[in-house]
Amino acid sequence: MKKLLLTSLLTLLFTSAYSQQINPLIIKEDFENQKKWVDSIYGNMSLQEKIGQLFMVDVFSSAPKAKIDKVKSLINNQYIGGVIFSKGGPKRQAKLNNEFQELSKTPLLIGMDAEWGLAMRLDTTFAYPWNMTLGAIEDNDIVRQVGKRIGEQSKRLGVHINFAPVVDINTNPNNPIIGNRSFGEDKGNVTEKALAFMKGFHQAGILGSAKHFPGHGDTEDDSHKVLPTIDHTRERIDSIELYPYRELIKEGLNSVMVAHLNVPALEDKLNFPSSLSKTVVTDILKGELGFNGLIFTDALNMRGVANFDKPGEIDLAAFLAGNDVLLISEDIPKAHALLVNAYREGAITEERLAHSVKKIMYAKYKVGLNDYQPVDTTYLVEELNTVNDDALYEKAMENALTVLKNDKATLPIKDLQKKKIAYVNFGDESGKPFLEELRKYAKIDWVKANNLDGYVQKLKDYNYVVIGFHKSNENPWKGYKFTEKELVWIYEIARTNTVILDVFARPYALSDLKTAANFEGVILSYQNSEVSQQLSAQLIFGAREANGKLPVTLGESFPLNTHFKTKSLKRLQYGTPESVGVNSYKLKKIDSLAQVGLWSNMMPGAQILVARKGKVIYNKTFGHQTQQKKSAIKDSNMYDVASLTKILATLPMVMNLFDQGVLTMDTTLGEMLPEYKNSNKANVTLKEMLSHYARLKAWIPFYTHTLDTITNKPAAKYYSTTATEKFNVEVAEDLYMRRDYQDSIFKIIKDSELRPVKGYKYSDLPYYILKKYLEEFYGAPLERLVQRNYYESLGANHTTYLPLNKFPKSNIVPTEEDNTFRMQKVQGYVHDQGAAMLGGVSGHAGLFSTSNDIAKIMQMYLWKGFYGGTRYFKPETLDAFNTCYYCEDDVRRGVGFDKPQLGDVGPTCGCVSMTSFGHSGFTGTFAWADPDLEIVYIFLSNRTYPDSRNRKLISSNLRTKIQQAIYDAIDY
What we know:
alpha/beta; about 950 residues; about 15% strand; about 35% helix; 6-stranded parallel beta sheet; 6-stranded mixed beta sheet
């Protein structure tokens, strides 16, 4: 009998007199305790306390003491039921929250307007994308994840109800207050997004509130300032504006906020605010839609309602209309007194009062206020700004980016070797992150001019122009339009160039385009955040795919749902560690290790890069070019990579010939170069010499034979300080070697003795030989071959031999104060003496590069010969060279590639897979790729400066300790 009675009571409380809709404030599995708590609290309240529960007061945590004290007075004297926090900071808010809760006899319901996260109101908190941006995402689960994370952040700060999601359907592009706060203009899409967002809130354990009922999407006025009119028929409002509410109510919507709107089709009274309308609140929302959750007024100090009547009178009217919570009353003491008096006079019945107050109590129990705990401020800011937030923001923005036009498959940009690309920026905000990200993929010139003619003339030399339109990302209400001048200029630039227009502003900016005919590509990036700019640049170059769909109509050119999908060209992405299963906090150990390297004088500076699953997740610079600390290391600084040249220049050219069948693993030197047919190296195979198993000498100090025997300086017989017809091999600054001595170098190599016993011996000599072979085979110098076949199309624009021909010396990191050969600071010239004597270009050394460029080449290897839409060689070719053929003879090497140690000692941390491969360089460089875990690791330094005898980097194993830290940071 008792169980039957409880079931009947539960059914009664789960429904209402207005409908059979489930009450969203009930905790079904804990109903008996919830009801007991609510009844107990309500039963012990005075009338004044009950009336007080209806009010939610606003407060800024940044407010002066007088205003804070006023709120405390309202808690003590009017027994208010809740507080809605606005601007301020998280720590200040948490402190006030705890103070207010301590004062209040009944726990306070804490609310916030935090539609895109706490950053909507608070400093030092996280901002997620605006609703319009989320509206472009096809995968609604991403929107749920965003809602859940915002809910978790709210809960962490002691907030119980977040007044979101906005479910207004923004059918009016000129709406001054909704706009970007809406998910779009399509009722289905808005509803799906709002539902996902709401479910995220619920999973986080907070209440959501759909707003602004009955629909604020088609207005041209701001209800903060005036009473806007919704001038549509009842049928239209039913089918469009009310649609999301119906669907969300079915799914357990906790709360609705009622707007201050004049809706003649719903309310007969002239210019009567919907928030005060019994027809709107009680008859339609509660009755027809069957809503049983909490009903909040929009702020009662807004002019859309405040102009209608006196403070206090408005509150009473709002309550009588059917609202439960009176939000931001202009005069709570006066309103409180009026409601108490109305109760005593019978205008408010006990049943009506209990209906709202108990709903508020049920809501408080639902969010855990039956067991209130103060906000813990320990690590509060850190926990409101986590690496997981960064990863989710990246995921959301990536899926929102929308390609609106893509004539002739302009996007993504392909064939970089054929492109000369300019960037032009318009708008009044920075596009610096966009430009910097574009430059990670190709050479991009930032073209500036003071007038249109200047732009037209300067852009004549470019076959691609990327126009970035950048507007404020501060909030969704900021200006977003093109100026008339900007429109004229971009039309003309587009008329005479191949143009990609990328808009970092709300979609409606594009509504002002009279035509999009001359734009080959149009991208909508929605927001001018740093991440949006970076991801959009990645999309342009095919590292990311375009998946977004236009959530609104933008004139005839771009109807609702316009979108062009683009496919990945497989270029490196840049993003967060967590997005590929790596722990950011653990990865920070690299910072500490690098600092130890600097403090211990292992090297003056370094570039360190880590990529996983095709995404660069760590890319930092440390220290300076020299110990004098005048020039800090930058991403664009180029290092002499020493023996990395072997696998970054010579080896890929050899792999090309293997791929084509010109070479095999068993091709001999006698077959490759005629002069070797009768030498002691005639039968040395490609496989043997690139596995360092060919009995070749480790190296030959060619330069020592050219030094003066008395002064130990470059002998006049071989060198000149000025370039002449005879002395024309530039070895260093103002130092030129005789051209004919290069023939002597190759003869010395050919005639050199073989080591007596076959076994592993690392040697540079094969790469001298291969340089000669490749240049003779192709009839072109090696530096031109690798540029043409690899670097230009890879976008490795900072990878080159002879860097001083292309870059200023200040951009190149010095390698040594050479006191044994060149007698000068070596900067911009190859450090290796033998390579220097070949004019700076050899197969074993001479290449200069950056960590970012090397990562592209290593990633191309990891993708087995594919990168940027280009197949460089077949997958099986990579496999053939990444094989240890002589492991049984204790030779760990692949063909050209170094491989993990076979025992305890070797080139890696011992934590890598046996399929991994890479190389190290004498100057303090290291590049390694692991196919199993999809890791690329690049370390560049000039440990040889000022003295190459400095072996601290080597003896400390710093490079492999960093490698270990990378593997330790992998979560999954």
